[in-house]
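Appendix B. Raw example, untouched.
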Amino acid sequence: MGLIVLVAFIAIPLIEIGLFIKVGGLIGLGSTIVVVVVTAVVGTALLRHQGLSALNRLQKSLNAGEMPLDTVFDGFCLLAAGMLLLTPGFFTDTVGFLLFVPPVRALLRAFLGQRIQFQHPAAASPQSSGTTYRPGGANDIIDGDWQDVTPTEPDVSLPKDNNKLD
């Protein structure tokens, strides 16, 4: 994973520099700068519109008692898209605009969903016995200590007439 991040930090700026040189040579410096600024403005407007929509869907899902994993993933993609569009460059703008397209997010969600496996934290810890967590099983045992805290003497701090609280 660390190698992928290192390669990305080196490759993406090199791609952007190459694209700036190529596009600047074709349309000129001023036009290139205008295109970069316009993509940032358009990206900000798209982020505002789709971000508010995602927040509304998230709130509806939570109110209905549903697990809004798709909406959270979409929100993460929209945040990444906004950051990419605010970063000057044609490659990052292309990736950013693609993340605004719902079918592209659905494909990315399906792709990542096949590759990510979730494991209960207790099963992943080094002190774990190697068993996995299965909620609601018949063998659920909760081990704990208890202490009786019932008062042995009457509480004299309460008023005699318990029906009235001051």
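End of appendix B.
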